[in-house]
Amino acid sequence: MTVVAELLAIGDELVHGAGLDTNSKWLAGELERIGAAVHRFGVTSDDPGHLRGAIAEACARADVVVATGGLGPTLDDRTRDVVADLLGGPLWFDPASWQQIQDWLRSRGRPVPDSNRRQAFFPPGALPIGNPCGTAPGFAVPIGRARFFALPGVPREMQALAGTHVLPAVAALPGLRPVAQSWLRVLGPSEALLGERIAPFMVAGRNPAVGVTAQSGLLTIRIVAAAATREQAEAQCAATAAELRPLVREWLFAEGLLDLPELVVQRLLAAGRTLALAESCTGGLAASRLVDVPGASSVFAGGVVAYGNAAKLELLGVPGELLQRHGAVSEPVAAAMAEGARARFHADLAVATTGIAGPGGGTPDKPVGTVCLALATGAGARAATLKLPDLGRGFVRERAVHEVWRLLLGAGDAAFVAAARL
User: Fold this and answer.
1) What is the pLDDT of residue 411?
2) Fewer CB near the terminus (10 Å): N or C of the chain?
3) Can you tell me the distance from the alpha carbon of 102 to that of 263, in angstroms, rounded to the nearest whole number?
């Protein structure tokens, strides 16, 4: 048997588009890691009828259901009430949970509104799950065929309760099949072309399963294996990855489960190199992603958003005659931007981006999607022009940042030549 799990995110803000469900993504990864098979995500409003149906249906299909949200102190937080109605009994009050809520608020010098007392009520048969990070206890209760876990919607609180209660409880169930993953990142081909190249590996029912996801031109080949042990699953992933590499060799530029900025920081740390950025069309997007990574300060010396020509002149020392002769979106200007950033921040490497993200600004010679990328090292600067698809301003900027990562993951001529071939 396989332990089947479903995830349910609760909240009007989610179905109305005002918020994004990130909890299910995190939970799915953690449940899959310990061997549960996540078959479905669900998002539902706080409406009692919708919520009741969503919980009942999930608990009829799955062995484990984890719901997030709807445990706050206000009247629109209805998870506990709907579960009690579903189980056919009244809510019960837990003095220990109420004391924990009061202690948490008072320890932070905050008042204790009477409305918070609602959070200490639980459905019949429920086991309270204390919350050390906030005022919303979770709970666990059997519903239908499932073990139902209700967790707070705040990600920090949800992760704490899941780590101490939900994941250990699921890990003790029989029928788990540990899962391992491998990722191969490629740039260059369309999703269709890549799919044709690796089609024999993507047949339904294959173990390891192989799939492709696309984001702003970055294609990720995801390999997922399930086996009796994690070691066996990892070995199966490694074997499939070894078969795929020769098929995508000219496009492959990174591997592993880390995000690309994390890989860049790791690579620069290992090489003992520092980096500076000069961004025009990407508007600081690359720098922002880089500083999201803990430890980036050890390798990232600084960056400049030189969006206008005056900033390129004054902040990076780009010669005015280069701008006049070649225009801001040109290889000579990109190279000068990279050299200027490297000199000003005393960095080992510098990368510059300048381009036309659209929707306007394109010309027949330089249409929207034209991006010039440059790498400066102690040996000088090299630049290349990329003709990216005009799939919207956001796509061009994101794709340009992916090209920055590809360049830095090589941090030398080999990677630059690969980028220049596009």
Assistant:
1) 46
2) N
3) 44
